[in-house]
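HUMAN: You are asked to prepare a plain-text protein record giving the amino acid sequence and the backbone structure tokens, both parts labelled.

ASSISTANT:
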Amino acid sequence: MNYRMQICQTIGEIAQAEWNSLVCKCNGGVLHPALRHEYLLALEASGSATAETGWGPLHLAIHGDAGELLAAMPLYLKSHSYGEYVFDWAWAQAYERSGQLYYPKLLCAIPFTPVQAPKVLYSTPEAGKAMAQGLAQLTWQAAENTELLGTQISTLHALFLTRQDQLLLLGDATSLNNSSRHVVQFHWHNQSPVSGKPFNDFDEFLESLNQKKRKNIRAERRKANIEGLEIRRIQGAEATEAELEFFYQCYSRTYMEHFSSPYLNLEFFKQICTSMGEQVLMVQASLQGQPVASSFFLHSEERLYGRYWGSIENLPCLHFELCYYQAIEFAIEKGIEWFEGGAQGEHKMARGLNPQTMISAHYVHDNGFKLPIENFLRREKAHLDAYAVELSEHTAFRESSSGQL
């Protein structure tokens, strides 16, 4: 079999059906919502992830003799480190202090979406290895000279890798000798620690928690559900223009409260609600008939991904209700096995989410920086291991449940 690798400056250069077929094949037969062709296309078409915003698409595609898509990868030329959630600002500052350029860099990830998803998509193990080797060759050439991409790059980063990604990008399939990095997220598992089966309802989930955590959650739900409050779940395909515009108002307000600007625009949310609305969930809270808060999720048959939230009124415990308790109820009702609450926030453990380790791969071309960064990663992992032990002592469950570090 002869392989031909193509660098695509837009996901539109790759056929939607072929890309999504590889996603399913590498994701246990499930179409990952954040890796769908429609999702990546909406990021580009809306102007949210483009070269102008520092996310220059360089997606890789490997074709066979008949032109069929055998392997693919989401890849970007980054001119900054925003929207990644695996932080390398200190590395960039070290480069700057030495008089060298850290940007641009290569990034294999889903823009603004820190979820575990297959990054090396392939039809056969051989095609997967060919993609890993093709990425290595591209990275080496782009780090050595400007001819291939029109610029030199300093590093390659592949984020939130699945186990099969790790075998390809941290194993023998690539010659880059990548270093691994670990971060912690908080996920909820739809599995009773008593029966080992999915929870039947929210009350059964509560009964699996220790008394203090169970009591606190019930108190928070009572505080949130004040008189006149109505909470509705809205599938993306059924969301009205007004509901989407209100959500975006809330989403933007959250960023402004943190003295930042939103990464995504309203057009992006409109596009994915139109093109893949069956995998979008919105939760909207209204008080006396007027909307006051909204949250936004992606989901497949097996996983629910918490993404965004905001409100225009500061109501007690409404954040916990819309971001966690409604999500857990929805997952139980739909038989969804996992709810990924996202990065950061030990407070999530008090609501039944447990720590999970996410792994990424990093290649540093300059040998003068490679060893110091590897030493940093070893020290960071030691701290993370100690942090994991500390977290394990604060589980909300009556007894240890699966999914902890």
Summary: Residues 4-177 form a domain with the Aminopeptidase fold (CATH 3.40.630). The radius of gyration is 22 Å. Residues 400-405 have pLDDT under 50 and may be disordered. The first strand starts at residue 4 and ends at 8.
